[in-house]
Amino acid sequence: MSTETATNRHRGRPREFDEAEVLDALMELFWTKGYEAASLADMVEASGLNKSSLYNTFGSKDEIYDLALGRYLDTRGGMLDQIITGDRGLDDLLDFFEFVRLEASSESGRRGCLAVNSSTELGNAKPTAAEFSKRYRATMGEALRRPIERAAVLGQIDPELVDVYVDTSRALVVSASVAARGGIETEEVSRQIDSMCRLVDSWRLPASV
Amino acid sequence: MSTETATNRHRGRPREFDEAEVLDALMELFWTKGYEAASLADMVEASGLNKSSLYNTFGSKDEIYDLALGRYLDTRGGMLDQIITGDRGLDDLLDFFEFVRLEASSESGRRGCLAVNSSTELGNAKPTAAEFSKRYRATMGEALRRPIERAAVLGQIDPELVDVYVDTSRALVVSASVAARGGIETEEVSRQIDSMCRLVDSWRLPASV
DNA sequence: GGTTATTTGAACCGTTCGGTCCAATATGTA
DNA sequence: TACATATTGGACCGAACGGTTCAAATAACC
Asked: A161 pLDDT exceeds 80?
């Protein structure tokens, strides 16, 4: 009956790296270079691991890419949840757009959105990529829906158009990420985000008396 | 003074293929597979030419890609001009969205937009690709501006928001092409286009008495 | 029909691709 | 200290990569 203290979970040599950390580094690589352009050599360099360690731990390039995409979505989903909070309706949405503006002008943000990049690079060609594309779409939609539904409750906008505004907001964000990655000057992208904000403002109903 | 009839423009063996036709085929290849994923072997197969013929006529893969992109933009620009015509303002814009819907549900259209795909795949990495990204953005903007400015003249919309609506319309089209390529079901994409149309309808001002 | 210019197919280049294997090494347990 | 177990770096694989060269074939012009 003596239960051994659960110290012998792993017998041999323990792992010298943090899986999540390495996966993050690989995600960054794919984010920057895309799937095809990122070579195994790049992956080795980015991870700091040996090629065979990489392979043993995570599998093939294909599998690693899927893991990296998954990690991006999880991380990103959490970020969205954190960012789009509050009960101010459209004002929260506008705050999020400001976050998008900030990102789009940063070195990191000019790589666009990994989910969008993956969508357009691998599209229908890679089933798992299409799956992530759908997941990203859903996650982003849900996050955007919250402030917009709240805006309807607050009487800021026409409740009939909640779905339309959700779709529109998502499209605007996607398009901004495309522009940012596509080498469009940050001033121009920022101007586009101005338009996004002005559009949202145009959704406001006149305050009922 | 006897001017020779200008028959001896080319002395040797004449070209056996049509440059534009071959370039179209190559454009289709890059449209479908993207830049990195398209191999020289693919290019040979798509063009029907020999590898060295390809090289002699158009140059390296890199140069051919640029030529193909240029051809896409020219072709596409002409198409946009043809499609977005008329003087009905928002109704012409809505017609264009219907065209986008039709494309997005076709086999061919589910490859997205080559300019957008190129933007996100090569982004800042390839200067010429960034150049095309800007050209595409400008061309699309100008095409969309026409019906929207007309709508302002017709009193359909708030003239103050013309720029905003141009940016928005372009963003919606870009986002639709991303969705179409990303493996999103055609019904879902079509639903997104419904939202686009409803949004545009919400821009209409009440008819002044 | 001879000349000339061009295309053509195939062989070939060195490099990099993604992927695999294994002996050496390092570490926790007994 | 000896054992068991996992990781590690590097050698190695065949295939495909983008790109180049060239002799042979071909067709318009004189």
From this structure: yes
**CB contact residues (below 8 A), chain A span 32-51, against chain B:** 33-34, 36-37
Q: Say if the Cβ atoms of B183 and A137 lie within 8 Å.
A: no
**Nearest chain B alpha carbon to A175:** B171
Residues 48-107 of A with CB under 8 A from B: none
User: Among A83-92, B11-20, B108-117, B169-178, which stretch is predicted with the lowest mean pLDDT?
Assistant: B11-20
**DSSP one-letter string for B102-115:** HHHTSTTGGG--HH
Are B70 and B132 contacting, i.e. CB atoms less than 8 angstroms apart? yes
The listed range with the strongest mean pLDDT (A11-15, A73-77, B97-101) is B97-101
**Is the separation of the CB atoms in A195 and A101 below 8 Å?**
no
Buried-state track B80-113, b at ≥16 Cβ within 10 A, e below 16: beeebeeeebbbbbbbbbeebbebbbeeebbbbb
Residue A97 one-letter amino acid: F
Q: Provide the 3-class DSSP secondary structure of residue A163.
A: helix
Handedness of CA B93, B99, B101, B103 (dihedral sign): negative
Q: Rounded to whole angstroms, how far apart are CA atoms B118 and B107? A: 19
Distance from CA of A53 to the nearest CA of B (A): 27
Q: Is the CA virtual torsion A115, A117, A119, A125 positive or negative?
A: negative
Nearest to A128 by CA among A74, A63, A76: A63
CB of B134 within 8 Å of a chain A CB? The answer is yes
| A37 DSSP assignment | T
Footprint of strand C on the protein (CB under 7 A): A 4, 7-8, 10-14, 38-42, 51-52, 55, 60-62; B 10-17, 49-53, 56-57
Closest C-alpha among A204, A171, A181 to residue A32:
A181
CA distances from B118 to A171, B61, B114, B176, B182 (A): 19, 14, 6, 16, 14
Short-list A20, A38, A24, CA closest to A108: A24
Integer Cα distance of A27 and A46 in angstroms: 9
Specify whether the CB–CB gap between A174 and A116 falls below 8 A: yes
Question: In which band, very low, low, confident or very high, does the pLDDT at A12 lie, cut at 50, 70 and 90?
Answer: low
CA-nearest of B44, B46, B38 to A37 is B38
% of chain A surpassing 90 pLDDT? 76
Chain A residue whose CA is closest to B129: A182
